Amino acid sequence: MRPIGRALDRHCPDPGPAADRPGGAGHRLPWLVLSLPAGVIADRVDRRRLLVWMDMLRAAVIGGFAVAVLIYQAHIPDPEAVEAGLAESPAGAGWLLAALYATALTVGSAEVLRDNSAQTLPPALVKKPHLKRANARLWGAEVTADGSALIYGATAAQQGSASCLGVFWVQSAGKAL
Fold first, then answer.
1. How many angstroms separate the most distant Cα atoms in the chain?
2. Neighbours of 54 (CB within 10 A)
3. Model pTM?
4. HSE on the CB side for 135, CA within 13 Å?
5. Which of 34, 170, 55 is nearest to 112 (CA)?
6. Which residues, 6 or more positions from 143, have their beta carbon under 8 angstroms from its beta carbon?
7. Please, which pLDDT band fits residue 152 given cuts at 50, 70 and 90?
8. pLDDT at 174 over 60
């Protein structure tokens, strides 16, 4: 969510620090609140199904937010106009920021459930001698997906592109593999 918050910060005349908060607080707050309950849920539910449902939920929510941004994109001023001080605050910017917060909280909550179930899945699928390798591959794939998403998001945000939403598609695709 942080690249989208920074892109909004760049495109809106004076959104203040709230534009970056969904990336930090909105996306990380579920880790503080839901970590213990997510572990309980992961122990009581079929982990594979939980993993798939949380990935599908994240994709649907991010897709919905992408559609909202594409619909609203005509009202977002150009970065050059913002830098020159010629842009006015777009009408309805509060709605888009609220959607950003809701997206961050939903994606963050789904990530907590997904990651907790993913951590407990390898011991159920792999024999003990191969467990270290399976865990290393799981975490290697997640770190690679997160790193690729950050690089893509930083590049898109630097160009002022609304395609910074692709950061989540890259990340989700990497974790799904």
1. 64
2. 23
3. 0.69
4. 11
5. 34
6. none
7. low
8. no
For residue 137, what are the contacts with CB-CB under 8 A and spacing of at least 6?
none
SS3 of the chain: the string is CHHHHHHHHHHCCCCHHHHCHHHHHHHHHHHHHHHHHHHHHHHHCCHHHHHHHHHHHHHHHHHHHHHHHHHHHHHCCCHHHHHHCCCCCCCCHHHHHHHHHHHHHHHHHHHHHHHHHHHHCHHHHCCHHHHHHHHHHHHHHHHHHHHHHHHHHHHHHHCCCHHHHHHHHHHHHHHHC
If we measure between CA atoms, which residue out of 7, 12, 161 comes closest to residue 94?
Answer: 12
Report pLDDT digits (tens) over 42-52: 889 998 899 89
Residue bearing tokens 């309950």: 37
19-46 b/e with 16+ CB inside 10 Å = b?
Answer: bbbbbebbbbbbeeebeeebbebbeeee
